[in-house]
Amino acid sequence: MAKITNIRCIRTRHNRSWTIVKVETDQDGLYGIGSASDIYQPSAVEKIIEELFTPLLIGRDVSQIEDIWQTMYTSSYWRNGATLHTAISGIDMALWDIKGKEAGMPVYQLLGGQARSEVKVYAHADGKSYEQLEEEVERYREAGYSYIRCQLGGYGGGGFTQGTQSVFPPAASFDEDVYVQAIPQMFEKLRVKYGMDLKFTHDVHEHLNPASAIILAKRLDPYQLYFLEDLLQVEHTAWYERVRTVSVTPQAVGELFIHPQEWLPLVQNRLIDFVRMRVSKVGGITACRKIAAVCEAFGVRTAWQEGGENDPVNQVAAAHLDMAIWNFGIQESNHFNEAEREAFPGMATIRGGALHLSGLPGLGIDIDEEKAVLLGAPAEGKPYHNPYRLDRRLDGTLVRP
Ligand code: MG
Fold first, then answer.
1. How sure is the predictor about 161, in pLDDT bands with cuts at 50, 70 and 90?
2. How many angstroms is it from 122 CA to the middle of ligand 1?
3. Are 301 and 274 in contact (CB under 8 A)?
């Protein structure tokens, strides 16, 4: 059996915001890669992998994925934290990659095999005006997408006015009363234009107070969304019980979830319809296949989080799960440029609104380290810093993202 000889973090893309983990073994040419990207705290994740996990795991048998996962999970006593679980995820994915390469099979075959013809993805359409948004929707429709997320003015869009605060750093002002009017009007126009031909979603991005969230969910019912995403802040998920009593709009939640107790009550009480954790944030393939199995028992489907900051290794890890689990709902899409595609040979591709894996053994994706270096580097001597963009209410109060 192959043994772990070294674990390395390869930081790439602009400002080194992607962290790719490479688990090397004592077998000639046998290694695996995984995603441990955290755009906000990349150095913290890297330190956990280098200083905690690498000494712990060198010499371990690569085949023991479950035991290695539990070892990492309990390695620092306090567990279920965002940075710890990102580090766990990177190594977990790399071990699945190795297992697939050893078996000569794509990882989805090891997870139960193909359960659907293709992995449908949803596109991100956005516009400063309704007209701009409709152009985007049209562009994706022509490219073959049948599922499209529609935003007016970005996340929590449709409720922005000109920022006026002087005592705080500049930020967009968000008026939730404007927002809960604008978004139903947007979907009214889209349904008039497209009928039921397209499946629409919308991401609230937690911008609303519970009272406004409930009003929005109710107002959106006539437009039959595929789902409404992150209607409530993670601190206020108990309000989903109230949402259920007034609205039939399907709810998708969870891109911030790490701890099982964050999603388990929502799933077991059938208060949501889709879970949306990011595979590389919640514990990798090992964690997500278990989450999916629990959700299957309660009729809840998956919609693993993706989006612009994610790396292509996380995307393929999600796609292998999507191929094999029965209760797959939809996959969020992500796009990469030509240089990124060359640095990550075997990257999944989107055709006809669906994600296609390379078919190669393991995760089916590799990293060309020389080309990856060229994707970007930090400015010399400047600390890496990428704070989340925050909006403010009309009185200047911070809006939770
Ligand atoms: Mg979201």
1. low
2. 12
3. yes
- By C-alpha distance, which of 122, 109, 87, 116 is closest to 364? 109
Name the one residue in this structure whose structure tokens are 């994600």.
Answer: 355
Query: How much distance in Å is there from the Cα of 205 to the middle of ligand 1?
Result: 6
Identify the pLDDT of residue 36.
98
Domain identity same for 255 and 334: yes
CA 262 to chain centre: 16
Residue 334 has pLDDT above 80, yes or no: yes
The number of folded domains in the chain is 2
Residue 278 has pLDDT above 90, yes or no: yes
Q: Is the pLDDT of residue 199 over 90?
A: yes
Range of the domain at 47: 4-106
Split at pLDDT 50, 70, 90, the class of 379 is: low
What's the gap in Å between 366 CA and the centre of ligand 1? 27
CA of 65 to the centre of ligand 1 (A): 30
Pairing outcome for strands 227-229 and 199-203 = parallel
Please tell me the distance from the alpha carbon of residue 125 to that of residue 217, in angstroms, as a whole number: 20
Cβ atoms 69, 289 nearer than 8 A: no
- Tell me the catalytic residues: 155, 205
